[in-house]
Amino acid sequence: MTGDGTATTVERARWRVNALGAGGPGFTRRSDSPAESEAPRLEVMRDAALHLDARLPGCDRSAPPIHVASHLDTVPMGSADDGPAGGVGAAALFAQAAW
Q: Most buried of 8, 80, 92, 93, CB within 10 angstroms?
C-alpha cells in the first residue's frame, strides 16, 4: 500500500460525502438512532460508556485491534466536516487494507 493510493481513496470518499450536502444548507441528524448502529457485515456492540465497537465477524479476537476514533455532531445545519470526516478516513483505511 502506498501513501498516494490511500490519499486518493480518502479524497474520493471525502468528495462523495461532500456531494451529499452540496444541494442544501447542511445536515440535521438524530443522534444514536437504531439505524446508526446497524452496520453491514459488522458485529456492533456498546460498552458501559455507550462507545460503539464494531468488528468484522470471524476476526481473530487475540490479534491486536485497530482503533479508529470519530464523532458525529448533531448540531442543526452542520456541515459535512461535523462528523463524517473521521468515518470517511476509517472507510478509506479499511478499503485499502489487505486482510
A: 92
